[in-house]
# Entry
Amino acid sequence: MPAGAPVPLSRRLAPFLVFVLLLLPGCGSVIDADQARLCRAVAPALHDEDTEITETVLRPVPGADNTLHYSYRTRGPLGSGPHWLACRFAARTGAGRFEIVAVDTDRGPLGEVKLYILNRWWLPEATEAARPPLFRLGPRSAYWLQQALGGLVLAGIYGLIATGFALVHGLYGRINLAFGEIAVAGGAFMLVAVGAFSAGGRLGPGTLGLAVMLGIGAAALLSWVVGRVVFVPIAEQSRSAQPVLIATVAVALVLAETLRLTAPFRENWLPALLNRPLYIAGQDGFVATATPAQFLAAGLALTGLSVLLGLVRFTSYGRSWRAYADDPKMAALLGVRVPLLVGGTFALAGACAGLAGACVVIAYGTIAPGDGLAITLKALISAIIGGIGSVPGAFLGAALVAGVEIVWSTAFDIAYRDVVIYSLLAGFLVLRPGGLLNRAAPTPREF
# Structure
């Protein structure tokens, strides 16, 4: 870049995006939610039945592996005051994370007999009391709110992969059907990183954020390799779209089988983090709840989509992408660096898929090789409904597909949900083949 030239917006946004993605996981505690629930359940066993317990703080003990420190206040017939207890668990992962092997309190440690009674009879029956909701809503409204909260994560996941379809289709007019498995691979790489970090100590906000970034980076690299080795050579040698479709299906099958065969040799579950329910709205009968993990996954997905829309709209990359989508030869004559643009587009599309896989892991705890096909189909439907080749249209299509899924699942038989989604696709192809943004005609992919 010439001296004194302004720094492109993409380069200014990149460090900020990395910083935001690293900070977002730190918005809540990363204490194992199951261990937190068990440790909180110990306190009522140490006091009278009529005692009111108010939590002060729950945190890991520095330097003491697998130990949580729980501070609380009590108020009851025998008076009120602050108390604390420390729960030490048998292991950080696996079945041992559910077993409390020692409890220390402000009154002294529990003996073996009391600890046995606690583990054998009290904790299996103990449940965390529901807190009052933040807002009051009728049961019907609260139920619809519950469905909408679940739809946020789906819309973000479908939207990220649908934008990957749109980015690649905008350049070549071809579809890469391996994006769903690339998303699964990104989630699997994230789980590998989480397992490695957990083996070296308790998982923290920084290490969780770094695991997300590693999953995104691995998916971006995988997509770039697939584009360079498989997609681009076939697309440039054949005028028909069928060879590319067949080749990317083969890539998806290879990725799915590789992940399935290697599943026993790696960590396949995210520790139960940020899973304490938040009681949002409702009243007696039904309360809409969500977990911080769901909000984190939806926030990451929507942030990624927003940044991608900004890149396409305001940066030199976006202008080059639109110019090449409009007229490849003229774009090359006017100075667009085609190899760099193509490689960057595949890497960016892969990063979107990797972020989608990471969001699945955060929201649901794991991701499986068989998930790739379902994600691919729903995201492809989203991209077609929005207008294939249009990045904003892909997001709109994802929101529509997720909304239809939620509404149908809420009001009708869920067994027919996918039938409705595929019928919706057929209806758009017949009645509005250009999708929501009418991209059927061979016109430039304007923003």
